[in-house]
Amino acid sequence: MIISYRHQFVFMHVSKTGGESISQALLPHLGPDDIIVAPPVHTHPPGIHRLAKHSRLDVIRAVLGHELDNFFKFGFVRNPWDRVVSFYHYQARVQGERGSFADFLPSGLPRASCTHATSGLDFVGRFEQLDSDFGAICAKLGLAAILPRLNVSKRGSYRSYYDAASRTLIADRYAEDIEKFEYQF
Predict the structure, then answer these.
(1) Residue 166: which of 145, 179, 185 has the closest Cα?
(2) Claim: this prediction has a pTM higher than 0.85
(3) pLDDT tens digits, residue range 60-111?
């Protein structure tokens, strides 16, 4: 997540939607008072608002108050079936082990839906058109940023990972995302 006072924007980093690439592209444009949030710290004093890498807008509003209204707020979404496969490969890389995809489901699913994570944003881009949507954001902000490709997993089509039961599991779990963003398997 990035809060840029210099360019008056908030980038909401939704997991497995190209956020590391976007953050890296925006990093050279940040000013000394801007905030980029790394992975979360899991302990903090009670009553203290803590910003985390994947904080929701309501948490940011609790910290910034009405000042947030002056910022352009954006984030990205991704096809839920593809996002889960990406998360599976990410978990395997981070944890150094990889069971079968079927064993990964359902306990390994990302908790946050894209619908909730992007609620209240001014612009919601799509991972499937990352280059063009990020280009539109940069044009609005007056930035000339180069989008790198980071954390790319080497794999085939997400469709090959699913059978009927696992396809339905994801459809049920992320039904709100599928409906709101009109995703199809």
Answers:
(1) 185
(2) yes
(3) 887 788 889 999 999 999 999 999 999 899 888 888 777 889 988 978 787 7
What is the residue-wise DSSP string for the chain?
Answer: -EEETTTTEEEE--TTSSHHHHHHHHGGG--TT-EE--SPPS---TT-----TT--HHHHHHHHGGGGGGSEEEEEE--HHHHHHHHHHHHHHHHT----HHHHTTTTS-SS-HHHHTTT-SEEEEGGGHHHHHHHHHHHHT--------S------GGGG--HHHHHHHHHHTHHHHHHTT---
Q: Which residues make beta-bridge pairs with 126?
A: 77
Say if CB 3 and CB 61 are below 8 A apart: no
Q: Within 13 Å, how many C-alpha atoms sit on residue 79's CB side?
A: 14
Distance CA 43, CA 41 (A): 6
